[in-house]
Give the backbone structure.
Amino acid sequence: MLYDAYEVQRSLLTGASTMADIGAGLLNNPANPFAYSHMGPIMASALQVFAHASAPRGKPEFGFATTMVDGREVAVHEEIVLRKPFGQLKRFRREGVEGGPKLLIVAPMSGHYATLLRGTVERMMPGHDVYITDWRDAKLVSLADGRFDLDDYVDYLVEFMEHIGGRPHVLAVCQPSVPAYAAAALMSANRHPNRPATLTLMGGPIDTREAPTEVNTVATQRPFSWFKSNVIATVPYTYPGSGRKVYPGFLQLAGFMAMNFGNHLVSHWGMFKHLVEGDGDSADATMAFYEEYRSVCDMTAEFYLQTIDVVFQRHLLPKGEMTHRGVAVDPAAITDIPLLAIEGERDDISGLGQTKAALDIATRLPASDKRYYMAEGVGHYGIFHGSKWRTKIAPIVEEWIARAEAPLAKAA
């Protein structure tokens, strides 16, 4: 019933959004005398803000056409190099550019699409052969394709690294820090030839007992049974994944919006004022952010519930008790994968110390292969997107990768 009620509301808002957009267009039309009145721009701006806020959204595009490599512009081609039921491995091939460190960016499966990391990809493309995990919306995956849980997530990462070949560098942003770390530990234990050359973790919940945030509180203040009974819904018959149990993306979005409701109101008020004043560039920047932020997808129920249990309630990885298909995930098995942990000073999703814990539990990794960086004045989103990511954080990641590339190239 929850999903059905949402679909009814979405249908109604879609119609209202269309009407508001038409109304704003009429009020802004130069042929309309009301457009030159005092109230015309105000009413048109209000309608535009409502139309944008209530419009339906699908999966965004990365939209890369070119990048700069050694001072010259080269074409970029998006290629799906491996398809799986619940996600695909996408490569951003730079035309005419061969070589360069292979970098797998692991996007979160937390309600948003991989395009949330557009800024991350864009910044790393000039110097790296970039791949990304492009997860699918669970409501679009048929029941015939089976289930997908945290163990499957780890398996996908291992298979993606095998497909890339060699020892790719891995950059995990937020939620995938745990499965990426688990994959690294399992591959290290087996001396897998495609284990990561480096592993960079950014704002990830390795140990949520450190500086708990509101997200952690929500996940721990209720018993596991509550989540199973109250936030899991069934995909309606109108989607290919009809009948699948999921944690809906619209619930995740509602939770994130509620955490910073005042900030979102201020942002929309600012958008409204920019539109009234005719400052289209500033209004467009806000719209672009929310276009991405409101594009959400569903997670399978089993993946969501296992993450709540393993990561947020029982803290199995930092306690050394996590398993993958019955095999222990031993952080001490990581002995030759340099680890870089990056946190934002103002991160309200993963508190300070949660990602840094990854360095502490890798007890057999030499200290010279561990590095920690705390980005001052940076929130969760700013760790991987925006000016501070581009100018302060990304150079540290690049240096860490380059440092590991030298001995790998010599060995090859």
Observations:
- The chain is about 45% helix and 15% strand.
- The CA atoms of residues 101 and 128 lie 5 Å apart.
